[in-house]
């Protein structure tokens, strides 16, 4: 069937129709023709073919309107599946999503450090297990989200120098394709998270956005002209490497990754005798005074650094919104955004277009969800980088949820 056949469903008009339906939720054949610019006959032929392939499904007829009753056509949730794996500095996660992006099943493995052999073995095992849950022949492929240059952060992760060198030059896509038998693509983890916010979230409602994801280390994503911008070498919006004020131990300019990464908050919490990972993720019910104090100290450094990064990025790319998301629990994520907004008052924005600052709406799962959406986008979207938004997201935005404030 087409969901798992890499040689099929490449016709642009088929992708165009699927994209129009995804954005609207459901359309009649006449509405599909109008939305895509196809003739009524061409749209009908293609829709019938996609119905026969079970990629689309008919809903109940809508009566009570002028003319003949209309039969809405929608995506069939079981028509195709996407499989995603996130290889991170603290865990390996895998998720299976249906054609609408809803989670079918997930798996997670924690680790102290992302050693190449064990991490790839966990990723392959989880991918094979979840792939078996998809309807036969309907799996579009495997997307992998992981940080770039993972081998460079051994010391910061408490490992000996060179402990992660096995990642250097490793063909991750090839290794997992061989282990799973699935067509596999790899993308930066923060870029994948940005794609998930575009497709499933409600924080990016404009055509240009800067996205910051606070994982163990901070990373970024960029949206230009409504498209996810990956860069010529897949390294656009590498915000963690943005230079900051002050110098590191080697006398070089500090980077945003040193000033605003939650890994250092986790270390401070652990040093205070607390469970840093649980507090950051919100798995510990009652925040302790010591935890809030450690978070406040981390935020005193992180917020000005984030504000500096926002202004610096806005001076290069004219973005309408900056979104901050990540692994922090919702209360701490909101506090980061509020403190960053306050810190922006300390920077001159003369000559810059105002931008809005917003809290991301997905949080910790964004990276693995973005990875799972990647094969669906590649197979079914008219343009793989034009991440299509669903109707529920549009409805939430129209309801005026989470109004942003522009910095002065």
Describe this structure in words.
With 408 residues, the protein is α/β, with parallel strands linked by helices. It is built from 13 helices and 14 strands. The chain is globular.
List the main descriptive attributes of the protein structure presented here:
disordered N terminus, disordered C terminus, 3 domains, Nucleotidyltransferase, domain 5, Arc Repressor Mutant, subunit A, 5-stranded mixed sheet
Blueprint (SSEs and pairs):
Layout: H1 12-24, H2 29-36, H3 40-52, E1 56-58, E2 73-75, E3 81-87, E4 91-97, E5 103-110, H4 116-131, E6 139-146, H5 172-180, E7 184-188, H6 189-200, E8 209-214, E9 218-224, E10 227-228, E11 243-247, E12 253-255, H7 256-259, H8 262-271, H9 276-281, H10 289-314, E13 321-326, H11 330-343, E14 356-359, H12 366-380, H13 391-398
Parallel strand pairs: 3-6, 6-7, 8-13, 13-14
Antiparallel strand pairs: 1-2, 3-4, 4-5, 8-9, 9-10, 11-12
Helix pairs in contact: 1-2, 2-3, 4-5, 6-12, 8-10, 10-11
Q: Poorly predicted ranges (pLDDT <50, ≥5 residues)?
A: 1-10, 393-407
Overall number of structural domains? 3
Q: Summarize the biggest pleated sheet.
A: 5 strands, mixed
| Morphology | globular
| N-to-C order of helices and strands | HHHEEEEEHEHEHEEEEEHHHHEHEHH
Mean pLDDT: 88
Radius of gyration: 22 Å
Give a short synopsis of this structure:
This protein has 408 residues and is α/β, with parallel strands linked by helices. It has helices spanning 12-24, 29-36, 40-52, 116-131, 172-180, 189-200, 256-259, 262-271, 276-281, 289-314, 330-343, 366-380, 391-398; strands spanning 56-58, 73-75, 81-87, 91-97, 103-110, 139-146, 184-188, 209-214, 218-224, 227-228, 243-247, 253-255, 321-326, 356-359.
């Amino acid at each position: 069937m087409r969901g798992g056949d890499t040689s099929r469903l490449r016709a642009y008009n088929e992708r165009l129709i699927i994209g129009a339906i995804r954005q609207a939720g459901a359309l009649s054949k006449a509405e599909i023709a109008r939305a895509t610019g196809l003739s009524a006959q061409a749209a009908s032929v293609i829709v019938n073919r996609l119905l026969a392939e079970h990629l689309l499904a008919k809903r109940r007829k809508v009566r009570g309107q002028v003319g003949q009753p209309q039969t809405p056509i929608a995506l069939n949730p079981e028509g195709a599946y996407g499989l995603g794996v996130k290889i991170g500095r603290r865990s390996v996660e895998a998720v299976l999503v249906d054609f609408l992006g809803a989670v079918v099943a997930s798996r997670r493995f924690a680790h102290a450090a992302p050693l190449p052999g064990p991490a790839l073995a966990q990723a392959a095992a989880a991918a094979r297990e979840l792939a078996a849950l998809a309807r036969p022949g309907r799996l579009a492929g495997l997307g992998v989200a992981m940080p770039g240059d993972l081998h460079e952060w051994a010391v910061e992760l408490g490992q000996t120098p060179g402990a992660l060198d096995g990642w250097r030059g490793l063909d991750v896509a090839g290794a997992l394709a061989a282990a799973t038998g699935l067509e596999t693509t790899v993308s930066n983890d923060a870029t994948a998270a940005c794609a998930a916010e575009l497709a499933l979230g409600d924080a990016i409602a404009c055509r240009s956005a800067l996205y910051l994801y606070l994982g163990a280390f901070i990373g970024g994503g960029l949206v230009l002209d409504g498209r996810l911008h990956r860069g010529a070498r897949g390294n656009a919006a590498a915000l963690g490497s943005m230079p900051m004020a002050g110098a590191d131990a080697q006398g070089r300019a500090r980077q945003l990754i040193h000033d605003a990464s939650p890994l250092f908050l986790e270390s401070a919490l652990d040093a205070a005798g607390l469970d840093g990972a649980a507090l950051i993720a919100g798995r510990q019910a009652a925040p302790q005074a010591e935890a809030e104090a450690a978070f406040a100290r981390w935020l005193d450094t992180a917020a000005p650094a984030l504000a500096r990064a926002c202004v610096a990025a806005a001076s290069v790319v004219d973005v309408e919104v900056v979104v901050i998301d990540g692994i922090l629990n919702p209360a701490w994520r909101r506090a980061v955004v509020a403190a960053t907004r306050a810190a922006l008052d300390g920077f001159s924005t003369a000559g810059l277009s105002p931008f809005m600052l917003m809290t991301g709406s997905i949080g910790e799962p964004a990276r693995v969800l973005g990875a799972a959406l990647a094969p669906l986008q590649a197979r079914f979207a008219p343009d793989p980088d034009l991440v299509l938004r669903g109707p529920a997201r549009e409805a939430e935005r129209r309801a005026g949820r989470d109004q942003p404030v522009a910095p002065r």
